[in-house]
Design goal:
Homodimer; disulfide-linked, upon oxidation. 5 homodimers assemble to form a ring-like decamer. It catalyses: a hydroperoxide + NADH + H(+) = an alcohol + NAD(+) + H2O. GO terms for molecular function: NADH-dependent peroxiredoxin activity; thioredoxin peroxidase activity. The chain is of the alpha/beta class. The protein has one domain: Glutaredoxin (3-Layer(aba) Sandwich). 28% of the residues lie in helices and 21% in strands. The chain has six helices and seven strands, in the order ββαβααβαβαββα. A hairpin with a 5-residue loop joins strand 6 and strand 7. The longest helix is centred in the last third of the chain and has 13 residues. It is globular.
């Protein structure tokens, strides 16, 4: 069976997964559900990375964290995810200086069920591609971006697309927040 990525217009799947939300002893883990996010009435950006304790991944995670307030200002829940366990996530956060102060949950999809349902598992190692999903408050996937395992994504582009989607208008190429939209 071919790996098919859930795409635009699809309903984002329900999930209940362990997430790392802190490095404070006894407060590291939280059971995160998509129902909780959906009930918040907010947009969601979920971004996936292949493996913890690697080289490209922490640069992306740290950049998303730097932009955390930008996502919050756009009424958007930010969630990071990989197929590593919550214990590996917690160890990596404690070990890596750029990850200690993360403001968003690190979802652990150890069963790989969510990554499988999303269609983002790499065929050989069964690790997640660098995938980013923008999901509207109704749970509809509005944007999907997939990157090769070796190439980091552009967080500013994720924010630009989120801004464009939230206008609910026609936005031309290279449109930036505050610029005119198109009239049809």
């Amino acid at each position: 069976m071919k790996n098919v990525t859930l795409s635009l217009g699809a309903q984002f799947p329900d999930f209940k997964k362990k997430a790392v939300v802190s490095i404070e002893k006894g407060k590291e883990f939280y059971d995160l559900t998509y129902e909780e996010i959906r009930n918040s009435g907010k947009w969601m950006v979920m971004f996936w990375w292949p493996k913890d304790f690697t080289f490209v991944c922490p640069t992306e995670i740290a950049e998303f964290n730097k932009a955390y307030q930008d996502f919050t200002d756009r009424d958007t829940v930010l969630v990071g995810a990989s197929t590593d366990s919550e214990f590996v996530h917690a160890a990596w956060r404690r070990d890596h200086e750029d990850l200690r102060g993360l403001q968003f949950p690190m979802l652990a999809d150890t069963s790989k069920s969510l990554a499988t349902e999303l269609g983002i598992l790499e065929a050989e190692e069964k690790i997640a591609y660098r995938a980013t999903f923008i999901v509207d408050p109704q749970g509809i996937i509005r944007w999907v971006s997939l990157y090769d395992l070796n190439v980091g994504r552009n967080v500013k582009e994720v924010l630009r697309v989120l801004d464009a989607l939230q206008t609910d208008e026609l936005c031309p190429c290279n449109w930036q927040k505050g610029e005119a939209t198109l009239n049809a």
